Here is the input.
Amino acid sequence: MPDAVSRLAEVRAAIEAAEDEANRPAGSVTLVAVSKTFDADAIRPVLDAGQRVFGENRVQEAQGKWPGLRQEFAGIELHLIGPLQSNKAKEAVALFDVIETVDREKIAAELAKEMERQDKRPRLYVQVNTGLEDQKAGIDPRETVAFVARCRDVHGLAIEGLMAIPPFDENPGPHFALLEKLAREAGVEKLSMGMSGDYETAIAFGATSVRVGSAIFGTR
Ligand SMILES: *Cc1c(COP(=O)(O)O)cnc(C)c1O
Here is the structure.
């Protein structure tokens, strides 16, 4: 059984190959290592191997392990990739460097309030529900461009990118293409798309960051 450190090296190599294949510059894609459900002892070797950007999907779980790891390792960048409840906005602003899951007016308003109060400005992405799935978070693709504009104009929030999780049982390519098109229309530069099963495809469609969990840490 290969361990997380050797799998990390394989994923990094695959990202480089996909960048090259897509005629994109080396290093243009950021690897977000998704460490949800894994504890500090499982994450530490990956930090030792030089990985610094991580994703977590629950605020409370992240609060339990990352403040300690930040005392051990400099330069950690933490992304919130799971749904955000408005009553957790305060904790999310305090802990995360990037919040990828802004998807409704109420969250935008809460984040704006907390960012002002804490004088801390995590970078923000809008999550888009490209497959219009009932059970999935994210804004309707048809409302995305207007929502990004409202974040800026009404709430004073600069949106840096878009994020999506394509439906589990569909070809992800059209969803990645839709997200790329919406980002262009909304005037945002970053595209968080692609997970363990499809990050190479996402890179071909222009992903600027990929969120890879099980291909590094193993099955959850
Ligand atoms: C868990 C998760 C991932 C990582 O999924 P893997 O298939 O394990 O790579 C990526 N993005 C989000 C939003 C997640 O919740």
